[in-house]
Amino acid sequence: MDVEVTGDRELLAALNRAQSRSVPEVEKVVAKGSLNIKKGAQRRVSGLKHAPAYPASISYDLYHGLLTVRSQIGPDKTKRQGALGNLLEFGSRNNAAIPHLLPEFAAEEPRFVAALEDLAADLLGAEVGVVQAHADAFLALLRGTAGLTVYPRPDGAGDGQRVPAGARPPYVVVDVAMETPEGSALAGVSDRVTAWAYCHCVGGNDVACRAVAQLVRSALLDRRPVIAGRATGLIRHDANRPPSADESTGELVVEQTDVYRLDTYPA
């Protein structure tokens, strides 16, 4: 007779997208829960005159898959009196049951679930941090460039508007997108990040638009930004949308979009 504790597959899949450290962290939670069940079960059956060696036979083993961590908990039948597990847990017509594993499993379950929920919150919170860190890497380089106005403003300044009302060119509006396309390790977890900065360069005429694009190019191209906990490549220029003119407001505005790419890996 044994009890199994499993790290939920869907949760682990979500955590793998968040951080490559998710499976090892889940393993810690599963191992702690397994140890609690083991020790609790041993306490419940300690001191039995007819089975003094039985408590020492209760143990657990951890098993790993790409997206699972599984623990098998119960008496080891190769150890002294380990074969008594089913008889003690469920009893028989001649022997009263001494429940010990199943009650400990029931007691541990809410603690185990709460621990996984806390871990998920921590790691998924870290995922949000990873997204913002890559955005900040682009934006810091752009905002540190003299003569370049960058929107949106930091931390929602400008009433949270993408481009503040009344803003006049030249300026650049930056959107950042991110993917985790594949893993860099044998485990296959999604720890590689590719981030793109879509830089919408806006000027009052063709010359001004190109000047903004040049400032953006000088700020980003072939730069290696610093991101905590990440090994970063050089920023590359991936694509360009040619300039387009807009006079719908009665004032000429010229815009072109340049796309820059950054690849990073766990440090």
Structure description:
The structure is a single chain. The protein is an alpha+beta fold and 267 residues long. It folds into 2 domains: 3-125, no CATH class; 144-266, 2-Layer Sandwich (STM4215-like), CATH 3.30.2000. It has 6 helices and 9 strands. The strands form 2 sheets. Strands 4, 5, 6, 7, 8 and 9 form a 6-stranded mixed beta sheet that branches. The protein has a 3-stranded antiparallel beta sheet with strand order 1-3-2. A hairpin with a 4-residue loop joins β2 and β3 (69-75). α1 packs parallel to α5 (101-143). The model is unreliable at 1-7 (pLDDT under 50).
Distance between the termini: 44 Å
Percentage beta strand: 25-35%
Q: Unreliable runs, pLDDT <50, ≥5 residues?
A: 1-7
Radius of gyration: 29 Å
Q: Which secondary-structure class do the elements indicate?
A: alpha+beta
Which features would summarize this protein structure in a list?
STM4215-like; single chain; 267 residues; 25% strand; alpha+beta
Write the layout of secondary structure elements.
Blueprint (H helix, E strand, L loop, with lengths): L2 E4 L2 H10 L3 H23 L9 H4 E7 L4 E7 L9 H6 L10 H43 L6 E2 L19 E9 L13 E11 L2 H15 L9 E3 L3 E11 L6 E14 L1
Sum this structure up briefly.
The chain is an alpha+beta fold and 267 residues long.
